[in-house]
């Protein structure tokens, strides 16, 4: 009998139903600075040349956005209105057919895409992707993505560095996106 008594004491009592939170859900935070733009026209990047991409447009399709005052479509530069952490990405579509028809590719032939602060790609941290040109398709895409800390007034922009022995062409529709994450 003593064993039975002990085992009934060990039984957990059922928990009361969870209380509903009386706190209202936090409202979604409004993104104050964000953009998605596309290159208006193709840009030829000559051999052994570094070019800053300029002349963007806001896409006409639904879902595109340009919020805040930081982006200058003409210069392709995003200037931080406030200091903080920003997320950037770019899809750069590269046509390297001229290179393929010219000669054999060399191991050192590559294209770098960088998102740089104040055009100082080596002095400041930059987002960088290096792509070899061995792709057998006429056009390939280089995707660069990451976070940068900007001071108020600093700008970022995209650079394409062609180390190959022939020009490559950045296609119109290549895009640049960014948003303010927080301080």
List keywords for this structure.
183 residues, mainly beta, Jelly Rolls, eight-stranded antiparallel β-sheet, six-stranded antiparallel β-sheet, globular
Sketch the topology as an H/E string, one letter per element.
HEEEEEEEEHEEEEEE
Q: How many runs of DSSP E, i.e. beta strands?
A: 14
Helix share, percent: under 10%
Unreliable stretches: none
Helix run count: 2
Structural class: mainly beta
Roughly how many Å apart are the termini? 67 Å
Q: What's the architecture, going by CATH?
A: Sandwich
Per DSSP, what share of the residues sits in E-state strands of 2 or more residues?
35-45%
Number of domains: 1
On the 0 to 100 scale, the average pLDDT is: 86
How large, in whole angstroms, is the Cα Rg? Answer: 26 Å
Shape: globular
Looking at the structure, the CATH topology is Jelly Rolls
Q: Provide the CATH top-level class.
A: Mainly Beta
Main beta sheet: strand number and arrangement? Answer: 8 strands, antiparallel
Structure notes:
Belongs to the adipolin/erythroferrone family. One of its GO terms (molecular function) is hormone activity. With 183 residues, the protein is mostly beta strands. The chain has one domain: Sandwich (Jelly Rolls). The chain has helices at 2-10, 97-102, and strands at 34-39, 43-45, 49-52, 56-57, 66-67, 71-72, 77-79, 84-95, 110-117, 127-132, 139-150, 155-162, 168-170, 175-182. It is globular. The mean pLDDT is 86.
């Amino acid at each position: 009998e003593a064993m039975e008594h002990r085992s009934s004491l060990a039984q957990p009592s059922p928990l009361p139903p969870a209380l509903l939170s009386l706190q209202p859900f936090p409202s979604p935070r409004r993104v104050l600075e964000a953009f998605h733009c596309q290159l208006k026209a193709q840009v030829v990047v000559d051999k052994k040349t570094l070019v800053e991409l300029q002349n963007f447009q806001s896409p006409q399709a639904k879902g595109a956005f340009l919020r805040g005052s930081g982006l200058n479509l003409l210069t392709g530069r995003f200037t931080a209105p406030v200091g903080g952490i920003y997320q950037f990405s770019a899809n750069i579509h590269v046509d390297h057919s001229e290179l393929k028809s010219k000669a054999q590719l060399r191991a050192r032939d590559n294209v770098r895409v960088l998102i740089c602060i104040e055009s100082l790609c080596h002095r400041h941290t930059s987002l960088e992707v290096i792509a070899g040109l061995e792709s057998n398709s006429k056009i390939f895409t280089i995707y660069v993505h990451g976070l940068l800390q900007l001071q108020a007034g600093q700008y970022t922009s995209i650079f394409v560095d062609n180390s190959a022995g022939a020009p490559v062409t950045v296609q119109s529709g290549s895009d640049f996106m960014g948003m303010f994450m927080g301080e």
